[in-house]
Specification:
The protein is built from 7 helices and 16 strands. The protein is α+β, with helices and mostly antiparallel strands. The protein folds into 2 domains: about 140 residues, Immunoglobulin-like (Sandwich), CATH 2.60.40.2250; about 170 residues, C8orf32 fold (Roll), CATH 3.10.620.
Amino acid sequence: MLLEIRHVTQYQYAVPVRESVMEVWMQPQKGVRQRLVSFDLEIDPAAQLFSYADSFGNAVYHFDVPQPHDRLIITARAAVESQPPPPLLDRLDMGEWDRLRSEFLRGENFDFLNPHGFARDSEALHHYTAEHEIDALRSRDPLTALKTLNTKIYESFGYEAGVTRADSPIDDVLKARKGVCQDFAHVMIAICRSWGIPARYVSGYLFTDKKHGDRSDPDATHAWVEVFLPSLRWIGFDPTNNTEATERHIACAVGRDYSDVPPSRGVYKGEAESQLAVGVSVRKARAALSEPEFLRVSGPSARISPGARRVQSAGAVYEQQRLHQMQQQQQ
């Protein structure tokens, strides 16, 4: 499946600010089942882009706008060719629980086995797991337990934007029993880690398909969970949509929780209120894209990183929301 992605982020300031410093986690990953065909970032006002790989291997771009400005627009465009993952087995043997207790495995996955940020234990989580008999799932093999957990989270939480915030603790969604993909991912991660299963947060995009029962917002970024099983390695689950990660899921970054991999994060100098508008479009490419299409040079509003290419994509739909910190909430 060849997908075109356009992600526009606009910060609007009530009065001009003196400087903005930003980091973005928007470049789709490169892998066996996800080929990054092209990626392009545009910054307005113009800024020079730099990049580095963070401690989890994610591509991070950062820039500084050192002059006064009353708005900042970040436009990311990508083309990704994705392949479906191999079908999961129906079940694993019960010995997988013993393999998960390996000291080597636990050392290699230390970051994804311990509480962090939003993905942590709480009294509200204990009440939730008791109410839904979550811990009883451990009597099954790990793969069956994870599939059932994915479904239970889907069935016990309603999808509704605006109930939680980007910085909401896990207790907020557990109390409201409503939230968005970011919240459901944190709940699943916290439970998996309490079982001794390494789990990590995945930030990216979803090509939504209502025929498959997707309830995610098609005009927003997406988040899901990857868990590590020794017999299968990393596999993805999407509790928002009660599915495994498919070729429709495009991963940009992985971390311990949302705070490790927000789509954008930064600070500005000045005493101004800010508003954030975000628009995302993910669509199938109408035809295979030719090499010349990707090699077109970006416009003068940005200095593009070496090797960057551009792809045409659909227009973005903006959703206004006021945030006191420069964060974006996964939907």
